[in-house]
């Protein structure tokens, strides 16, 4: 039997058993398993890993373990540029697909202007297919889907509260500089386009006609939007998310 030494860093420890967290530990094996298989055997989805060092040298998931290896495993550093150490380029043009448990989070992300697909009847295979075909990051509360060998980009959402989930996602993917409110439909995810007031006069509530001159229409579902009192709450939300 051979032995490799492992150390997981930062929030990756949340996936480990308590007695393995924040310390080095041994992994015993036969043959030469891929480091990806070893990592996921500890409960850590491969999509949560951004950097692997084997004996202080960068390695990818296909690396086969050898007796005596020391493996350091780091989480996704979306806000840092470590592309020189990685096989894949960091994510930049972020688009998401959310699982059935994250409907409110999907709505929040759309309000901030992020392209986020969601259906309350999404099956795991559908989510994976969409992620691969449209280069979307999977957001999920189900660790199992992230361990699927076809999944390339995904994130396990740790919080239960939708507002805290949003804060978690904004921080994890460093989204503050890309927020573009009033640009995407919260209901269907369609892009919004500007429309002239006279074009949609009959659709505007009478009280709104007197104080609002900027309107946008969803190109998908046709819902009309304007900057009412709710928009101030959105601005306060953005300030709260990015105040640091």
Account of the protein in words:
- The protein is an alpha/beta fold and 244 residues long.
- The protein folds into three domains: 2-85, Ubiquitin-like (UB roll), CATH 3.10.20; 96-178; 192-226, no CATH class.
- The chain contains seven helices and twelve strands.
- It has helices spanning 35-41, 103-111, 124-134, 143-146, 162-172, 206-209, 229-242; strands at residues 2-8, 25-29, 49-54, 57-59, 70-75, 96-98, 116-118, 137-140, 154-156, 192-195, 215-218, 224-226.
- A five-stranded mixed β-sheet has the order 2-1-5-3-4, with no helix packed on it. A four-stranded parallel β-sheet has the order 7-6-8-9, sandwiched between helices. A three-stranded antiparallel β-sheet has the order 10-11-12, with no helix packed on it.
- Helix 2 (103-111) links the parallel strand 6 (96-98) and strand 7.
- Helix 2 packs across helix 5 (162-172).
């Amino acid at each position: 039997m051979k032995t490799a030494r492992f150390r997981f860093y930062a929030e990756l420890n949340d996936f480990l058993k308590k007695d393995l967290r924040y310390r080095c530990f041994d992994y015993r094996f036969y043959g030469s398993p891929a480091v990806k298989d070893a990592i996921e055997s500890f409960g850590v989805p491969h999509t949560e890993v951004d950097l692997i060092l084997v004996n202080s040298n960068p390695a990818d998931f296909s690396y086969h373990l050898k007796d005596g290896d020391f493996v350091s495993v780091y989480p996704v550093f979306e806000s840092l540029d470590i592309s020189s150490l990685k096989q894949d380029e960091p994510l930049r043009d972020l688009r998401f697909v959310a699982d059935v448990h994250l409907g409110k989070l999907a709505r929040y992300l759309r309000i901030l202007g992020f392209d986020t697909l969601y259906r309350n009847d999404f099956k795991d295979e559908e989510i994976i297919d969409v992620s691969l075909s449209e280069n979307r990051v999977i957001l999920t509360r189900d660790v199992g889907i992230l361990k699927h060998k076809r999944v390339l980009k995904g994130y396990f959402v740790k919080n239960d509260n939708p507002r805290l989930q949003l804060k978690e996602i904004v921080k994890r993917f460093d989204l503050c500089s890309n927020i573009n409110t009033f640009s995407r439909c919260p209901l269907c995810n369609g892009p919004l386009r500007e429309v002239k007031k006279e074009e949609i006069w009959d659709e505007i509530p009478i009280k709104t006609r007197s104080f609002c001159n900027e309107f946008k229409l969803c190109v998908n579902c046709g819902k009309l939007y304007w900057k009412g009192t709710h928009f101030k709450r959105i601005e306060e939300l953005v300030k709260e998310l990015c105040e640091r």
